[in-house]
Amino acid sequence: MSVPVRVLIGILTLSVAIPAFGQESENKQAPKPGASAESVPSQKASATEDPNYIIGAQDVLDISVWKEPELTRVVPVRPDGKISLPLLNDVKAAGLTPTQLAAQITESLKKFVTNPQVTVIVSQINSQRVYVLGEAARPGAYPLLPGMTILQALSSAGGFTQFAKMKNIYLMREVDGKQEKHPFNYKEVIKGEHPEQNLVLKAGDTIVVP
């Protein structure tokens, strides 16, 4: 007979108290009458639907283990790229996709749980950012969303101040250790001219509004 997960956690944490989940959390884990584990979809929102998204430091992950509420929790990715989970201690998360991390956790839990079913959702993207500087209404760092373009980033920054030179905006991008400068004429792009200037952004890109 396998030892219940609840007992294992109590032993391995050496009597360190583990926060108890409320009735609401338990209800989220319980399938509807007549539904199997495989037929109950996750109701949790994901910050990205990109299956190729690479997890990075400071991202927040929602780790769900079906029918094991003691192992289900929301965890941040530490600066060292690892997350902390019951029974498994430190687990490397950065550099993996959510699917790869779920498979890794599943394999590790097999020593403690019978047929574990693990789901990993990126609930907050904090590792990938772009920067808007200069005469933007709200200059600063912004989360890089899938498919985000220069125009969308400028919209996130609230547009421009009255002093902005909208024809002379440019994007700074590091490629192979060198800085590349890409011009962006806002007035032309919003008219449908030179759409090729409206580049899809990459992590670390900086948009400068002179």
Architecture overview:
This protein has two domains: 97 residues, wza like domain (wza like fold); 81 residues, Roll (Outer membrane lipoprotein wza fold like), CATH 3.10.560. It has a five-stranded mixed beta sheet with strand order 7-6-10-8-9, covered by helices on one side. The termini are far apart. About 14% of the residues have low confidence. 19% of the residues lie in helices and 25% in strands.
What is the number of helices? 5
Based on DSSP secondary structure assignment, what is the total number of beta strands?
Answer: 10
Give the full name of the CATH homologous superfamily of the largest domain: wza like domain
Order of H and E elements: HHEEEEHEEEHEEHE
| CATH domain class name of the largest domain | Alpha Beta
- The unreliable regions are 14-42
Overall 3D shape: elongated
What level of helicity do the residues show? 10-25%
Separation of the first and last Cα atoms: 69 Å
Summarize this entry quickly.
By secondary structure, this protein is of the alpha+beta class. The chain is 19% helix and 25% strand. The protein has two domains: 5-21 and 45-124, 2-Layer Sandwich (wza like fold), CATH 3.30.1950; 129-209, Outer membrane lipoprotein wza fold like, CATH 3.10.560.10.
